[in-house]
Amino acid sequence: MSGANQIREQVDAVVVGAGFAGCYMLHRLRGAGVSVRVFEKGTGVGGTWYWNRYPGARCDIESMEYSYQFDEDLQQDWEWTERYASQPEILAYINHVADRLDLKRDIQFETSVVRAVLDEESGRWLVDTSAGDLLSAQFCIMATGCLSSTNTPDVPGLDSFEGNWVHTGQWPHDGVDFTGKRVGVIGTGSSAIQSIPIIAEQAGHLTVFQRTANYSVPAHNAPLDPAVQAKVKGDYVGFRARNKEMPFGAFADVEGREESALLASPDEREVHYEKWWNSGGLTFLASYADLMFDANANDTAAQFVQRKIRETVTDPVTAEMLIPDQVLGCKRLCADSGYFETYNRDNVDLVDVRKAPLQELTPNGLRTRDADFELDTIVFATGFDAMTGALLGIDIRGRNGLTLADKWSAGPRTYLGLMTVGFPNLFTVTGPGSPSVLANMVPAIEQHVDWIVACIVDMRDASLQQIEATISAEDEWVDHVNDVASLTLYPSCNSWYLGANVPNKPRVFMPYIGFPTYVAKCEEVVANGYEGFVRT
Ligand code: NAP
């Protein structure tokens, strides 16, 4: 148990995690003269991009947008090589940033924060780590990532399986050799859709176990056109400013989006969708402005993609299995490189585990209700306990010993996704209730870090010790997040945005939809003297 008498180090701030959020937080806090220690479970920086090393891992936001903007020299100097950066290139980028800013000396790697307890008398957080560190910090900042706690289904017999099993989100650093192997991939989300085409090329045989068919559009990844790079760099500040005004904080310079799919004739829509399909990527969902608001509009896009799937997959039975039945974009749209084409290979089979669920792993493979599959390697592409999993994996205790797990037992409750009542001076970077995963993550992280650092500096300047959200502000914000979501089609299916992928997780829509509105709200809160917070 933590106690003041055991404390080995006093700092102003502890930061948990050294992904994009933790690294930028460290840089900004240091610059503000705040003493800070960062703890990171991995052996290096990068967070998501450190752990997700599966074959084909690649960002689905274009390279020129998926990077820090706080340093003009940095964004001018760094050269991306592809339209969509691969995981190794993003990891190289974040390492470059960490080295350039000399961040690593303040990051303790291979160390998890296991407990953070509020000492109500001093108002400080007592933080325990897996390495036995005990720290006292005025501020505890959770930069733990939205998709960092992996979800491995509790399938009986996992220990009995005599082959090799891996999760895409905890991929072995020395890779996995699929050559000639009988491989099973469980899941058909983004991670699976990116890795399946590459695994299929290497494996002797690949069986994909699909519970829910997913929509995917071609990424059309390619070497980055130097002219595109030069154009963006010619006015990077303007490019970033335009993106900040977009609903997802991205895609500003994509031309040709139209208001309503329903105002166009079927022929016009066909031409329109074909153009967006051919240009590639997630902007397909922005081709008409009402696709996530009107089910009939959405259906026009869904039918277009369904037809593409039927045209691509030669076996009609397999093609029908691959046709999704949910709203397009309700589960995050995927961007692929040859995903549907992979099912035309002789060494690839698709199995529907909604009809015949997974029952157990056996020493030789996997058993569904209907059949046994002999496998050498099983890839769990089964996603994450998103947005709350990493936070609730730490024993966090606030006022009166209340645990965060108890506070959030019916779903996360926050004010602005930044703080939660009962846990003063504990900040969450891109926490539930903020745009986070429904925005371009890097600008969303920068906006949060800038807000938190300014808040800490303002408190220091005003000789204030503590900040906490009010219960009325939190309640109103939670209602508002839900109200905004209910205007859209997002809550209409079992997505991880709702926690629906994890058994027994409360069904609550977690991200806030609308990056510009959110940024304006954060700025207004500050302009009104930190409205909705009590500072003492
Ligand atoms: P995911 O989207 O949650 O997909 C997990 C898959 O596993 C789903 O198909 C899910 O089926 C299936 N599954 C889970 N539990 C299962 C079970 N017990 N039995 C059978 N199937 C099961 O996870 P992900 O693919 O790792 O992607 C998560 C998010 O990470 C993405 O949405 C995206 O935001 C991000 N990501 C981004 C990129 C990129 O930038 N390109 C790449 C990878 C990931 P159900 O749908 O039925 O639950």
Folded structure, characterized:
The chain is α/β, with parallel strands linked by helices and 536 residues long. The chain has two domains: 4-149 and 386-535, FAD/NAD(P)-binding domain; 158-380, no CATH class. Helix content is 31%, strand content 17%. It is built from 16 helices and 20 strands. The chain has helices at residues 20-31, 48-51, 72-77, 87-100, 190-202, 226-234, 236-244, 266-279, 295-312, 316-321, 339-342, 389-392, 404-407, 441-461, 471-486, 515-527, and strands at 9-16, 36-39, 107-108, 113-119, 124-129, 134-142, 164-167, 182-186, 205-210, 216-218, 334-336, 348-352, 358-362, 365-368, 372-374, 377-380, 395-397, 426-428, 467-469, 533-535. Strands 1, 2, 3, 4, 5, 6, 17 and 18 form an eight-stranded mixed β-sheet that branches. α1 (20-31) links the parallel β1 (9-16) and β2. The longest helix has 21 residues, at 441-461. The model has no long low-confidence stretch (mean pLDDT 96). The chain binds NADP nicotinamide-adenine-dinucleotide phosphate. NADP nicotinamide-adenine-dinucleotide phosphate binds at residues 58-60, 147, 153, 168, 186-192, 194, 211-212, 332, 353, 358, 381-384, 437, 496, 501.
